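PROTEIN–LIGAND DATA SHEET

This sheet pairs a single protein chain with one bound small molecule, L4CXMVQC, given as SMILES. Inputs appear in the order they were entered. The predicted three-dimensional arrangement of chain and ligand is reported afterwards as a token string under its own label.
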Amino acid sequence: MPALSLPWGAMHYRIDGPENGPTVIFANSLGTDLHLWDDIVARLPGIRAVRFDKRGHGLSDLGGAVTVEGYAEDAAALIGAAGGAPVVFVGLSIGGMIGQALASMRPDLLRGLVLSNTAPKMGTAEAWAARIDTIRKGGIEAIADPVMERWFAPAFCNGPDLAPWRNMLIRSPLDGYVAACEALAGADLTANTATLRLPVLVIGGEDDGASPPDLVKAMAALIPGARLHILPQTGHIPPVEASDEMAALLQGFIAGL
Ligand SMILES: O=C(O)CCC(=O)CC(=O)O
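PREDICTION REPORTED AS:
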């Protein structure tokens, strides 16, 4: 369990796959840790997969307040430490916002970008403040059921495989979750994302209640040449719910770079 020592504390990461494979960095969504990508990494044995727990999530320290750009600086430091630049960056939701910020701040580090179930701006400051208020009073459990309905299409949400992911959410460190909500409330990457000029694959989910298809399509339209794929009967978290389909999309994108 390696950790990168950064000014705010320790950032947990792991590397899987062959040393000579293409380096692919994976960035998680809100309230998840690097196990989000287990089924994807298992399906792509040829890549060198670098995963990390962003500040305040999983086994990483929090440190204090953070912005999406701050998370992106952490990802840049990890790319420096892990080597392999320029890398392919795959980010889901807030992880995709980290990817958008990183691609505009440090285009030299990336050769391809996958933006999954994300947008340049997600939610409103008022909605994030209300969510923070709810969980400060009742814990993350208080929001878990509606979050699951945004994360997963009905068949998965009502099935036997939901429990581990619900547990991952409700066991997230509360202060880390709140810090990420505050980062989301303050982030609008629209102008930066419109300047991106690299190969981009955009993935959405037909049943995504957190970043609905129209939001994802609008982001794709900002980026010249971006490829767009909306997965049917899939919610906000395709690496869990549609891992075969998402792995195939990633495989094709990486092979074409
Ligand atoms: O998943 C994210 O990173 C942020 C978007 C969101 O609000 C997801 C959720 O429904 O909790």
